[in-house]
Amino acid sequence: MKKMMFALCLILFSGTFFTFGSMDAKAAEGPRVTLGSPANSVQVGDTFKVPVSGENFNDLFGVEVSLTYDSQALRVLDVKGGEGYDTFGAYEDDANKGKLYIPVLRKQLQGSPQASVRLAEITFKALQEKQAAVEIRHVKAVNSERFVNEQGYKDLKVLTSDVGEAITFKISKQDDRIPSPGQGSGSGSGSTSGQTGTNASPGSSKEPVLNMDAILKEKDPVRAAEMLQALLNGLKSEPAAADKEVVKKAALSILEKLSSVPVNKEVADTYVIAPEDVSKRKTLLAGLKASLAQWKMNTAEINKIELNAVMEYTLGGRDANKLGVYRYNADTAAWEYVREAVHQVQAGKFMLVVKQAGTYRVMEYAKSYEDISGIYAEARYAIEVLTAKHIVKGTSETIFSPGKPVTRAEFSSMIVRALSLGPLVTDPKGETVYSDVRKGDWYYEDVKTLQQLQMIKGFDDGTFRPNDPVTREQMVVMMMNALQALGQVPTGNMQASGEPFADQQAISSWAKSSVNKAKEMKIISGTGQNMFMPKQSSNRADTAVLVWKMLQHSK
Asked: Which parts of the sequence are annotated with region: Disordered (predicted)?
């Protein structure tokens, strides 16, 4: 969506690109685009930032800036938008000629425009010792006011703009200056030196520790991760144990911030995750994990970090239990349910591991069936909620068949979907051990998941009997095995409080512990008259109640 907006603005800009040359740099009172000098001195191998700012503007919506730089002395590493602006990763760098083109667009059309703004930051690397220069050659600025131009197309109003003076700075040889504590080894905010760690001897603690201070002060998590990667890449020998602890602690903090993918919330609980944010962070996350592992600094906490996003919503009279996250599939023009999204109901938000960019939406799925109005209220609501969570569906578009028995294969699929167990499988190419569960069966993957996670055992003859009606005690055992594997069941033997079931002796020995725990946890309560009926099959309505109670406990 951001790409589409940017493309639209390029169209609106067309016809008047770069209508100004390098104007009077002395006209400081008027609107102008300027460059900022590096904050500190620069050495060969340093990376440093040059800010691009807009000054004295009113309603600065978009800017195109063309710069030149000394290509023998400098290399462009990256260009990022400033606060409130975005480059959309669309800058163009001609490293041979030393020419850089940067399009910048304000993120929001609304709001209170500021007179002076940070438009972008250019990250350079110093290549050789010399006096280097960076200069703005052309600029075009527009505000958000739209009009129809002479050609009959919608356009944006062009603003008068000057350009600031060129910046020049000296690049000195390595080791010509002494880093101050906490400065790191570079110039400017968040700079790092190409020599970081290269002279560290085994047992030396100064270099990594000094540089971690500078990295931790960097507010941009992507930039901080890039600095950490540069530090790790520069190491020539394994750090001492004390240094490792410092780096591991800092790395965990940096990676946790890096893993939080920016989400642009739009109208109607719609959220956009940009492709460039996902790809950049995914690459950095994988690279840092590999570098930390190389120097034996990866920890269990670091290894389990994944890209995630938070989507906050307003309830607005909807049933929170029927809300879910959906991602728009442009190929099928349909919204697809994101099963792995974790719902924090009290906080009014969803947490999800980000697998791909795109447009997401929090929506209520309200569906009922023609044949459930006469069943008991608890079952009716459970069916509606599980349908909204895409755990169960009707036997047709309008019929649920609440009295129909549930098979062992059907219950297996409900458990896998309800608890999102699929991603926990470590060997997706493995096969089941059951002689009557074959590839191509609709339930094959779900039964395989439960078997590989050791949540089911099958029968002594090597079968699973997927089409047999599942008994009540079988359901409870499968359910409690799954909850226990997820750490949702207290350890040790549990005796159900209160009066035992009247038919306690009819419960199979292999099921008694699970039934007791489920009763103590108030997931099951019997069928009436204090009976459990362990060998009785379960219908679709009663099974929905059991699964819904399990989900409420597992939150």
From this structure: 171-208
CA atoms within 13 A on the CB side of 275: 7
Burial 174-192 (b: 16+ CB within 10 A, else e): beeeebeeebbbbbbbbbb
What distances in angstroms separate CA 23 from CA 8, 26, 27, 160, 165, one per listed residue? 28, 9, 9, 11, 10
Q: Which of 513, 478, 480 is nearest to 407 (CA)?
A: 478
Burial environment of residue 458 by CB neighbours within 10 A (0 to 12, 13 to 18, 19 or more): buried
**CA distance linking residue 316 with residue 325, whole number of Å:** 16
Instruction: Give CA–CA dist 25/163, Å, rounded.
Output: 6
CA gap 228, 215 in Å, rounded: 7
415 Rama class: left (phi>0) / alpha (psi -120 to 50) / beta: alpha
The 3-state DSSP class for residue 319 equals coil
CA–CA dist 143, 131 (Å, integer): 36
Tokens of 18: 């770069």
Phi–psi pair at 233, nearest 5 degrees: -65, -30
Q: How is residue 539 annotated by DSSP? A: B
Question: What is residue 555's predicted lDDT score, i.e. its pLDDT?
Answer: 65
* Amino acid, res. 480: M
Within 10 A of 328 (CB to CB), how many other CB atoms are there? 16
**CA–CA separation, 433 and 495 (whole Å):** 33
As a whole number of angstroms, the distance between CA 273 and CA 277 comes to 7
- The set of residues, in sequence order, having a beta carbon less than 8 Å from that of 428 and lying 6+ positions away, is none
| Chain centre to alpha carbon of residue 248 | 22
Q: What is the pLDDT of residues 323-340, one digit of tens each?
A: 999 999 999 999 999 999
Q: How far from each other are the two terminal CA atoms of the chain, in whole angstroms?
A: 33
Residue-wise pLDDT tens digits, 244-257 = 999 999 999 999 99
Residue-level pLDDT at 532: 95
Distances (CA, A) of 505 to 449, 470, 531, 534: 32, 20, 11, 10
Which tokens belong to 121? 């930051």
How many angstroms separate the Cα of 497 from the Cα of each of 42, 500, 505, 520, 551?
72, 8, 17, 6, 22
Distances (CA, A) of 490 to 480, 493, 495, 549: 11, 9, 12, 17
* Amino acid letter for position 353: V
Structure tokens at 202: 């085994």
Q: HSE on the CB side for 418, CA within 13 Å?
A: 32
Strands 32-35 and 162-163: parallel
Spatial distance between the Cα atoms of 227 and 47, rounded to a whole number of angstroms: 9
Q: Which amino acid is at 23?
A: M
CB 374 within 8 A of CB 367: no
Instruction: Kindly indicate whether the domain formed by 2-172 is annotated with CATH number 2.60.40.680.
Output: yes
Domain positions in the chain are 2-172, 308-364, 377-554
| 205-217 confidence digits (pLDDT tens) | 444 444 688 888 8
For the stretch 290-299, contacts whose Cβ atoms lie closer than 8 Å and that sit 24 or more positions apart, written own/partner, are: 291/229, 291/232, 291/233, 292/232, 292/247, 292/248, 292/251, 294/232, 295/232, 295/235, 295/238, 295/239, 295/244, 296/238, 296/244, 297/239, 297/244, 297/247, 297/248, 297/251, 299/248, 299/252
Beta bridge partners of 265: 271
